[in-house]
Each structure stands twice: as structure tokens, then as C-alpha cells.
Write the C-alpha cells for this entry.
Amino acid sequence: MPATQALTILAEIENRAELEKVLAAIAADPDDNELFRPRDLPATHFTRFVIVSDEPRNELPPLLAWEVNHDGDATAYLAQVARKVRSIDRVFEHCRDYPVAGAADLDGWVAWMRARNHHATAFYTAYRGVPRSRVVNDGEVHDEIRNIIDRERTKLAGYPATEIQRRLAVELHRRRPDLDIAAEDEPSWALQWVLAILIGIPVAIVLLLILAPWAILLRHHEKTEPTRRYHRPVHDLKDMRKFEDQVTQNQLTHLVDIKPGWFRLFTVWTVLTVIDGLARFYFVNGALGGITSIHFARWVIVRDRRRIPRKHKRHRLLFFSNYDGSWESYLGEFVDRASTGLTAVWSNTVHFPRSYFLLWDGAKDEEAFKQWTRDHQIASQVWWTGVPKSTVQNVRDDVMIRRRLQRPLPDDEAMQWLEKL
Amino acid sequence: MAREALTHAPAEPREADLADIQGMVYSGFADHPYAAYVFARLGTNPKLSRAWLASVRTRVTSAARETYQPHGRVQVALAPGGLRALGVPDLVIDDLPQEAKLGMHERTRTLGDPPASTWELGNEDTPLDVLVIIFARDEATRDQMIDRERSALETAGAHVYPAELSQDLGGREHFGFADGLSQPHLPGPHREPRNGGTAVATGEILLGYKNAYNALPHAPHWGDIDVGRNGTYLVFRKLAQDVAGFWGWLDKHARDLAPRDPAAAADLRELLAAKLVGRWRSGAPLTLTPDRDDPGFATPEMRNNFEFLPTDADGMRCPITSHVRRANPRDARGGSAQDSDDVVSRHRILRRGRSYGAPLDDAAARAGRDDGKPRGLYFISLQASIARGFEFIQQTWLSAPGFHGLHAEPDPIMGNGDGSSHATIPAQPLRLRLRNVPRVVTVRGGGYFFLPSLTALERFSAEPT
């Protein structure tokens, strides 16, 4: 099954004022505008446009970030965009070096985009291997099952669990023959584990060899690097809340400088690479280190390509997340359930609350961590979700229910399956 | 908390602090059944406003019982607008939390509330600068106290809104359920946890003390004075209850499920209501007595003496979507019981609400016949962080349609549902889902206030210099 991929296009902006107008027009109604409708691209789970500026310092050129969580191969997806949404030109024509022919020259356009695609050093998805078409189909299957039970509960309740399951499948197929209700085995992670061990052991050996000198350097950095005191509860700017605290899902875009010098760049890259591996092989059950509310998240290292002395370079860490619930609850989960992992990543960036041996303290300082997050959060101009009413748990339940609908189950498992409806 | 700063904050108030803390933090003043909530917008002359505050401060009851006055209790809460009108410098006000400065009317999306333009109280046209809370033993005293506070405010040039008057329903709320049963225990001098009530870290409620993260929460300072210490944030919400809508709807469902048996339908109606609330009318928890109301489980010793995971993880007794389980998920918020307890301990509030409006006759309620009179609940909560306290509970646990794996199911009582959402009652082999749950509680307004210490009130009523 094609895995969901992370596309992160970063293009230098030429005409910001015009671009902002275009993005505002899309944001006014993402489902019905003349410029860019993500719903025309069925392989899209979530997408957003963000202007990544370097205000107030303005040393680095402003970038347009296009974040996409899509199914299948990036080239195929981009080709589909070029074919179906020609008006994507109206967005990117305000960027530098945009091809004159635009999306009409399919190969040229895809090449231009691919040249600007930044690899996500760590990418997490809560339902790996489940394409958007499945998410939608299985959501409708579950909804229809709910409706059948609502109407025929008294009649169905007289049968044994396995018979109820059979009747539900028959009735569902009768009402909605368009839905796919094929039984499917749960994915097996055995092969993944073998791979993980084959890759993991050499990586672990290398890491252990460099561990001691690295740890000494780390403590030196942690003790001497400047940090910031946070002295008041969370403050923010109003436009940050545009796509926040909506009913079911929300987004967060976050941009922060990596601390200067090779050590922090190396450390954050290593940590993210480990997280990426864990996300592929270990965090495969809908929770990223205890956080159950993230649909898709990624970290992208944006290298400073200016020709200046290395010690003045400002590499940045860009984070995109699509999550369930409010900002406060999301940040609360960070602090309560995943502070070590997040501290390991973000203690390599500026102004982060002081850490202890990479994993400890840091994000445990609840008020400081929330304020730090707010300080470096940037507003998204356009945000679109392909599953607006479903939480991560909803999607995973829907998939499980469809997979087992037609599978012969022992009585107790059938009973458990019924409880999920 | 950063290692070097591992907090010198005290864990709980000392004896001397009690005289500095407003009394309602430690007491619901249940022996004063007549309450009034007097809201006002202060005048344009800060000097007069400060003179008013200095005078009302002398009437404020602290938490030190020996200072209790014989006739009634007065408490004073200030919104950021009120502090501004008193001439408190912006630098101090700036230290208040974001959500308090924005005000509840700016947080409707976060809370899932109807737009503030539909509110009676606290929208953009009716800003609430101050809230004077009055508790009296009898109605006549309450009226006198209201008159005194009103004229004090008016003398200072304030615009005073009509007083909001509480109605004593004998420990029940308008739907008929025992209310205010599950309060966390706030540590303090001479205070022991009672009846299985779990202790909350003092800093979750009162500023100036260690919170559940073992940290000292930020608080506003004015020069050298910590004006936050011994203060808390107060959330006020006027919640209209549609009693006929609630019972009429349930009665219809019950009769549909037991069409030929009125006695069975009546029992079913009570069961369905209990399933939505999570407790029976008496307050007995469904997790302890799933089949019938048993007042034996409603005693102070028993009513909070339960967890969900051991016997009720799947909600077969107390549904996941029920109000009490959403408002306090106890050990069942995910992960181990300990994980859950840790998370829940960071989202605890003290409730100090009262009902308003005359009760609706039971028979009329069951028949779905409303008398058109206003009634409901003045919801009041106290917490050191509104964002992590009240707002989190309302947004993440009550209003969220996807709470704990549910789908399109906000809290059936408090979730601001729009009539298109559902309530699932787990059962074997098949759950019962009540469709199109009507909105039975409607927000009519409210606001976010700072409930300062007496020290802070003194500083606010003095010249700013």
C-alpha cells in the first residue's frame, strides 16, 4: 500500500503583497474558490500555505512554504496537481524563478517543484499506509453501520454477536453497494522490525562510540548557552488563532533558529533521524511518544545557503503539525506525555527553556515551554483538512471496523468489535 | 521547572494567609443561601473608583473564619477593564494571562459557545469591569446588601447592571440532580481532605503556591508587590437550562423504547437521564450503582469513592460521553491510571456556582411544557489558569465532539451541541445511541475576572504612583 508522503515546497517569494492577496482569496473559502481547491486532489490528507518570513531581522529571504500530506509518490502527486489545478500558477508565479510556462509545461513544473522540496528529517503519520480514499470510505462505512444499528437495534440485539456482524455486512452492502467493505488483515510489522533491527544495530553502535565526547560537549553547551527567562503567562498575536481552536482539528506551524555552530545542527539532525526511524517502526499505533492527537507532523531543517562564514549561518527548524483538539490541550500533551522527546529536538534551538542532558527539564517547564512555542509559532495563511470531522482515534477505529466487518471472528472478538460501533 | 530554580514556592498557605485570601476560595458559604451577583462598568474617574474599592474592601470577607461578619459575605472580582478604570498601570495588567485580557466573549470559538452577540451579559456592548458577589442568610438582608453595593458603585460613577439573583434549590440543580459533588480538596491550615476528595495542588487554584507541575505559576507584579499571590481567577457563566426540553425529550425516547408499559417507560426515562449525567438524581454514581438510584451511594463518603478503570473502563455503567465522566475522567483519560491521574490533576477547578430562577414543575417538565420563565445555573469556577482550568475542561473534555474516541458527540448536557449530535450509551450486544440531542444548556453570557487577595485590593485602591 502506498505510504503517505510529506511534501514540503519552500520557494523564495518575489512579490509578497500579491501573494498575500492570492492566499487570502483561497483562505476565504478553500473548498470553493477559483485558485486552488485541495478537494480536487483526492490523494490529499492535509495541506497548508505559510509565508515563512524572517521578520523582524529580514536577513533571510521570505519563503512560501507549501506543506502537503499526500498518498503515493511525490512526482505522481505533483503531476496530478499540474494537470488538475492549473491555477496553482497564480500562487507560485509570485515566487522567484517560476517557470514562464507554469504548470502547462508539466515536466518543467514538476522539476521546479522537486528542486524546492525539502526532505522532512522526521515525519510522523498516525495512520501509516491508509490512503485518504480509505479514510473517507471507512468513515462512511462506520457511519452507515451506526445508522443501521440506530434503526434496527431491537431486532438485531436478539442474535449472537457473530450473526449481528454478518447481518450488518449484508445490510450495509444492500444499502451502499458503492462502499468498499473488503475484509483485510491488520498490517504485520514483522518485516519492518527485521529491517529496523538491521538498520538500528549499526546506528546504535556508531552512536555509542561517539556518545562520551558528545555528552561532554553537550553539557558544556547546555551550561553556557544563553537562555531566556519567561516571566508571564502565554502571550500571542491575534492572527495566530485563525486556524486554531476550531472544533475538531487544528494546525501549528513553528519556525525557530537552530543554535549556532555545527554541534547543535548535528545533534538535532541525529535526534530527528532517530525519531523518524521510531515513527516508521515503533510509533505505528496512532501515538507519537504518548501523544495520540497528531494526524501528521514533520520537522524540516532549513539550511542557510548564504555565502557567509559558517559561524554566522542561521539554520532553522521548521515544524508542521495537524492535530486534534485545542492548542492548550495539544501543548499540554507535549508537556505531560512527551517532554523528553520534544526537549531532545528543540533544546537545540534558541531561547528554549534550559535542558539537562538533552532529554530532561526543558519542556517540563510548562509555562516557559508554552510561551516559547507561542513566540516562535507562525501564522498559516491557508489550511485545509481532508477529514474535518474525524480525530486520529476516529480514523483508526473506522479502519479497524471496516477491516473486520466481513472477517470471521470468534465470539468474544465479535463482541468486542460490536462494542466499538 | 528548570533545575536551578526548583522552586522556593510554598506548598500551601499559612495561617496568616487566610486573612489575605477572599473567603469564597475556601468556602461555598452554603449557610448563606441567598446570593447576588452585581456587575458594573466603572466610571471614568479613577480616583472615585479607587475610593469605591477602598470602601468595599473593608466589607470583603476573608478566609479567616474569626473575621467573618454576622450578616453576610461580600467578595470582589475585577476584570482587566476594571483594573484599567482604577488606574492600574498597563505594565501590571499586561502580566495577566492572555485569555483573561481577551475576555470570555473573545473565546467563544475555543469554548464552542454561541456568538457573544446573542448574550445578555458580558458581550462587547455590556462590558463587565467588576463583579461584587453578595451572600446573605435571608432575602431581606440580601436586598439591603445589594442596595448598599449598588449605591456605592453609582456614587463612584459606575454603571450597575441589574443584579443577578440566585435561587436555592436545596443542593440540586434545575434538572433535578444533586450538584457540586465532585470538588477537589484545596489544602490549607486546618483543612483535611474529606470523603475521598482528591487534593489538588494549591497552585492549581491559588497563585503564589506550587502547582501540579511543581512550579510557581506566573502572577502579576506591581513593583515589588506580588499582587497575584493569594489571588485566583474567577470564571462566571450564566447558563440557561431548558428543563422541559431535557425531560420532554427523554420522556419521548423512553416511551418509544417501552411503548406499552408506562411504569417501565418512567424507569427508563430516569435511567437515560442518569446515563447522560453519569449520576442518578440523588448523586449516586452509575459506576457504583448502574441499575437503579441508591441513595446509599450518594452519601459524602461514597459519592466520590470510585474510579472508572477497575469496573467500568468501557463505559457499560457510566458512558464515556456522560457529563461527569467528561468533566472529570479520573483514571480513564488514557494510558495507565497513574498517567491519567497526572493529566487530570492539571485540569482541576473549584466550583462555586448557584442556580437561578424558580424550578419548573415536574409534570410540566416531563410533558415538555415550558412556562417561559428564565432559569438556569450561574456557573462559577476558581483556578490559577483559566486556559488550563475552565477553558481546557470546556473545550477538550466537554465540547470536543471527538472526546476519547467518540464521534460527533459533545457533552450531552454542557457541550453546546447544535441538535445534530448524538449520545452513545454503551450496552451489550449493541449500544443505544440517542440521536439529535437537543441543546438543553445555553450560554447567556459571562466573563473572566481576577479575584485578588486583600493585599492586592489594597494596592489597587491606593494611588498608582
